[in-house]
Amino acid sequence: MNTPSPYWLRDNCPCPSCRDPRNGQKLFQIHELPADLAVAERHEADGRLEVLWSDGHRSVYRSQDLAAAPEDDGRTERGKRLWEAADFDNGLPGADWAAYLADPGERAAVLSSVVRSGFALLRGVPPAERQVLAVARSFGYVRETNYGELFDVRVEPDPTNLAFTSAAIAPHTDNPYRDPVPTLQLLHCLRNEARGGDSGLVDGFRAAALLREESPEDFAVLTRTPVPFVFRDRTAELRAERPLIGVDPRGRIREVRFNNRSIDTLRGLPDAEPDAFYAAYRRFAAITLRPGLRLTFRLRPGDCLVFDNTRLLHARTAFEQDGHRHLQGCYADLDSLHSALALLRRQAAALDELEGLFAGEGAGEYLGEAVTLAEHMLQAGALAEAAGAPPHLVAAALLHDVGHFHGSGTELMAGRDNRHSHTGADRLGRWFGPEVTEPIRLHVAAKRYLCTVEPAYRAGLSAASEYTLQVQGGPMDETEAAAFAAHPAAADAVALRRWDDHAKRPATTTPPFAHFRPLLAALMG
Amino acid sequence: MNTPSPYWLRDNCPCPSCRDPRNGQKLFQIHELPADLAVAERHEADGRLEVLWSDGHRSVYRSQDLAAAPEDDGRTERGKRLWEAADFDNGLPGADWAAYLADPGERAAVLSSVVRSGFALLRGVPPAERQVLAVARSFGYVRETNYGELFDVRVEPDPTNLAFTSAAIAPHTDNPYRDPVPTLQLLHCLRNEARGGDSGLVDGFRAAALLREESPEDFAVLTRTPVPFVFRDRTAELRAERPLIGVDPRGRIREVRFNNRSIDTLRGLPDAEPDAFYAAYRRFAAITLRPGLRLTFRLRPGDCLVFDNTRLLHARTAFEQDGHRHLQGCYADLDSLHSALALLRRQAAALDELEGLFAGEGAGEYLGEAVTLAEHMLQAGALAEAAGAPPHLVAAALLHDVGHFHGSGTELMAGRDNRHSHTGADRLGRWFGPEVTEPIRLHVAAKRYLCTVEPAYRAGLSAASEYTLQVQGGPMDETEAAAFAAHPAAADAVALRRWDDHAKRPATTTPPFAHFRPLLAALMG
């Protein structure tokens, strides 16, 4: 690895005095680093880079972290699927609402479609008032606007907006006069019995990319001309001045804001600019209207369309004035959707990791008992489930010995208390809340507690368990027992302990780890 | 005036087939204009430009509209007051909460401070839980985040964020890892008995402008380097890639995003860039820390600070761990605040316009009666008020003859029905809802109605009123009367009519127009 910039390297020091291990926030300020910061010594080996700094600080990096591929926020054209209508000849991306709710994999697929293709269609969302808010809240927060928390798209007697008539509407983005513009829009169909009123979507990033290809100068004009958008009625006067095509500092398309209806008078441009702007604007408008770019479909009751309002243009055909067509819509934001997707992916990776532990190391010996570690934990989980325990306690029973992985059980049997209950609870704390981790943290203490308060309990311990009891500190004294009993998770820990003790039966059939995945996923969500 | 670009000119055609008169939305699409659009004839005179277009359309412009100064959305450094701490030696901009609520002028001043200086301080906001939400809702919408609808800033046992400890926090903007970032922040002090814990504000636009002055290349580096911000805990994984200093296409400072704690590893930059970025970043950080830039003050219970999170950096000094310090905060957005301010200004202008009418034309003759038009309307308003009428009806009584302004009364007395009730209602519809305008629209009909259903009423009419009754159509027939009585505003119109009839007493003292301004302002809000 080349020597990187010293401030860059130091700013990324992962040590716990530089970064909060809980959330990765930096604990120092950039100006606190000395003006003459330099590397005093460096040592690189075994995938680790160790640096002693001129100010005495010591950093240890994993080389893989420093060399990782650049991540971005997923908001530019990079990594997205820019599409034309024909790309969806085999159907629109989406899922059934019930499957979306039940299965984290379906949820991730839907959110991922919004990120990659700019939209997804949920089917079977109950066609009831305000249900669109529940869809938005499944991945983020509702953005209230002057139209309310939600808005009704139907023919209104005295419409304040063309949307609330039966007229055709050309492809556009919503609320261009807002800054911050709502980055996501949801449209939920309650009724659609009118003739006409079909929906259309156009990939604005694709249209912008075509403009860049066919007429780079027009593209440049649209990225550099601030366009004043305005909306004015009795209750609002909203203004935003933004280019029609927003690019990031590297020139990548990041936002399309296209709404013919709300463009105010462009003033104060240099002399030739209005002509150049209008030529480019008209050329871009013509591209958005190419039939090949426009995906047309019909929303049916229960359909809920979720789309990126910084990228997709939406449209509708005219419909009969008297026909019954009623959509409810609301706005939300992409950042929360990306966060929800990242959590789902993180959870899937965590479950894969746990499943891998059960299949790998878990197949090994369990402290001299006649079952493997995986069998032991699966039995404990199954016992908790059979006893009707709440999900968090089933999870705790299933995962209670995760702290034994990576060879710690061997240490325990060699007479060293490895504090595996704490190791396991801490490791699981990345993914689960205290309702899961605290009974695990206390499950060794629960054994010591039960030996004190229930003499018959101790008599029933296996030989290995009696041995480890001694390594772990023996039965509690009265003060310890009273303190234990006062802990909020004590009862759960005692219940877990009893399943733990019974989960050592050879040749017992248990459900596989996969059986528990939905339960674990729900606790992570 | 030079001949402007034809598409620019046509796009701004104000005719009602090009623009919806209710909200100014355009009713045509830019691509619908012909490719060879040209001016066929033009005629400019008396401040009007009339254009006949090559496609046969005709546009009439007021020259002043075309020549108006450019407006922007008020979000860049342009027109703002970039400040240093000493600029507030005479006190912080703000108002008492009670005055803010009662007086639109105070409200406008507070919101205007947030726009110009980036902040304002409301005092005397009840130091109660959730009150901060009421402050946000007084000018906009609460933006919910992963921290909830609101968040508590106090020492927490297991903090997920440095904010929830007693540590000092250097100047920063909030939620840099969100895109869209919340553009406004509110902090409401419930308790502050701790030693330390003082608040600090730094004008980030000022700091950025200083960097541009002192080191233009560093400024350029910070505007063009996308910086990855990240926040990751058990419930969220948020990412935004944005430069530390955002500029608009004209290069004006538009957004500062500065938060040392949340900057992730910058990767994928060209070789020399990390060094250039860190040098610029450190120089900018040093500027934000200059003591002269930092405004320091202490929040007291009941204080609520409202500030622009795209401009101001906020900070706090450390405080005693055990001291009681409790703030509640929430986020909101600048676009709604600007809208609220525009409405207040529009309302003030409307009230000035009405007050001017009363003082000017209103001093003239009123249909041959012994009072002026202004005296007549003020008497009607005062009668309604004395009768304990609800505010909307007092307003309707006060304004019921606005349709007579601009000489229409003269026409009526010349025997032509000028439909002044409709003219007035339409004119007032820009500012008031139907509860005010509809009784006005019906107040002439109410006279015709009363003449039919109450013979004694007609006998009491003044001579002038009896004359205009004939011009207006005479008493209603039975069908007309039944239709009138069924109108939702009929009762209000009848009540208004009776005050109208009694408001013709010479030498009666009435409150001036100014007396009614707060009532009118409240109905406009």
TrEMBL record, chains A, B:
Q: Which CDD domains match?
A: CAS_like
Q: Which family does it belong to?
A: Belongs to the gamma-BBH/TMLD family.
- Could you identify this protein by its name? TauD/TfdA family dioxygenase
Source species: Kitasatospora camelliae
Q: What phylogenetic lineage does the species belong to? A: Bacteria, Bacillati, Actinomycetota, Actinomycetes, Kitasatosporales
**Which Gene Ontology biological process is one annotated for this entry?**
carnitine biosynthetic process
According to its UniProt record, which cofactors does this protein need? Fe(2+); L-ascorbate
Q: Where is the Gamma-butyrobetaine hydroxylase-like N-terminal domain?
A: 7-62
GO molecular function term, any single one = 2-oxoglutarate-dependent dioxygenase activity
Q: Which Pfam families match?
A: GBBH-like_N, HD, TauD
Sequence ranges assigned to domain TauD/TfdA-like in this UniProt record? 91-331
> The HD domain covers which part of the protein?
374-442
What InterPro entries does its record include? Answer: AlphaKG_dependent_hydroxylases, GBBH-like_N, GBBH-like_N_sf, HD_domain, TauD-like_sf, TauD/TfdA-like
Asked if the keyword Ribosomal protein belongs to this entry, the reply reads no
User: What keywords tag this UniProt record?
Assistant: Dioxygenase, Iron, Metal-binding, Oxidoreductase
Record keywords: Oxidoreductase included? yes
